[in-house]
Amino acid sequence: MKPYLTGRKDYLEKTASDSITYDISLLFPVIFLVGIGLVMVYSASSAIALEKYKTDYYFLLKQSVFSLIGVFVLLVCRYFPIRLFHALTYPFLFLSLVFLIAVKIPGLGVNAGGAVRWLSLGIFTFQPAEFARFALIIYMAYSMSKKDYKIRTFSVGFVPHVIVLGIFTALILSQPDFGSVAILFIITWIMMFVGGVRLKYLVVSLVTLIPVTGFLLFNASYRMNRIVGFWDPWKHASGKGYQATHSLMAFGSGGVWGSGIGKGYQKLFYLPEPHTDFIFSVIGEELGLFGVLLVVICYGLIFWQGLNIARNADSTFSSFLATGLTVSLGLQVCINMGVALALLPTKGLTLPFLSYGGTSLVISMASIGVLMNIGANACHDQTD
């Protein structure tokens, strides 16, 4: 074989190897977390399922179906042409608005705990705010990648993105879901910052939002109760700080190695929503510090690789998209863990790949598929 052909072959093999590395480095920790999630969802929900549905496998079976759907969606997104996301940007935005509006229609919106955040679609329910976050990230990536140097102008780089965010905010606040709005704002702010929007616009927007945030917090008694409970949970252990104190008890009783899978105590009708919002607390009690560190390491690998993919992406659109998806997953993890450890006020937010919930799991798996896709394209682009 001619020398230059041999060199070309070696280069192609290395590129293919890099692509596989991107896939494995993301897929392994994700599948590992999903596997742990199935075990812990069953452990955390069996008592609740037995009481409500007369079978302890109710939530496990549904989460297993969600996991299979999630794997399928991940594979679709892994091989879906990235350029076609450009064409899907505005249809996704439109669908998000339709879903968010449909939640308010009697018979379609599902009321749970005083909030209407789910949409009934026959045999399953769907949380539009999760899809809206995914659609907003795609829109932000597409919009900023088109603007080039105009991104630094107020009318082009700042206003359009804030308008879209404002529409989503109004619809999600009406559910009400203050936490999802906060996540959307942080994602939008970070993506505009990374995209090159002038810092003074971003700082002014933050300052402007302080009184608005204060009004929203003080105007809702249940939000104020959460803040009071967060500030001193042990003083309000039987009331406003109930969730935080029982979550901390779970971590405290877990020790280094945990009490053992299925042997946790706080999930037995003490800790609210142990299979969704507080599954990290159940992990802390049953798997101990060892299990907690294992989960944190897996998330760390995902975030590190996500940022590497964003840095090495073959286009500005792909780079912004990878940044937004990585930030979104990172925020959800940090907020959920912060709530479970009483470092943040209580907020109903699932832990990606671990908590029970179809919409969250499928959207998270889709995000990983897109990240793997971007990483593979960056490797293949080097051979052109």
What does this 3D model show about the protein?
The chain is mostly helical and 384 residues long. It has one domain (12-379). The chain is 72% helix and 4% strand. The chain is built from 13 helices and three strands; from the N terminus they run αααβββαααααααααα. The protein has helices spanning 3-53, 58-79, 84-102, 128-147, 154-173, 178-195, 199-218, 221-231, 242-254, 279-286, 288-312, 316-340, 358-381; strands at residues 109-112, 115-121, 124-126. A three-stranded antiparallel β-sheet has the order 1-2-3, covered by helices on one side. A hairpin with a 2-residue loop joins β1 and β2 (115-121). α1 crosses α11 (288-312). The protein is globular and about 55 Å long. Mean pLDDT is 87; it is low at 1-16.
Task: Describe the structure in brief.
By secondary structure, the chain is mainly alpha-helical.
Chain-wise SSE layout:
Elements: H1 3-53, H2 58-79, H3 84-102, E1 109-112, E2 115-121, E3 124-126, H4 128-147, H5 154-173, H6 178-195, H7 199-218, H8 221-231, H9 242-254, H10 279-286, H11 288-312, H12 316-340, H13 358-381
Antiparallel strand pairs: 1-2, 2-3
H/E element order:
HHHEEEHHHHHHHHHH
Judged by helices, strands and strand pairing, the structural class is: mainly alpha
The outline comes out as: globular
Report low-confidence residues grouped into runs of 5 or more. 1-16
Strand order of the largest sheet: 1-2-3
Overall mean confidence score, pLDDT: 87
Strand content: under 5%
Q: Whole-number radius of gyration?
A: 22 Å
Distance between the termini: 21 Å
Number of H/I helices: 13
Largest sheet: 3 strands, antiparallel
Percentage of residues assigned to helices: over 70%
Counted beta strands: 3
How many domain regions? 1
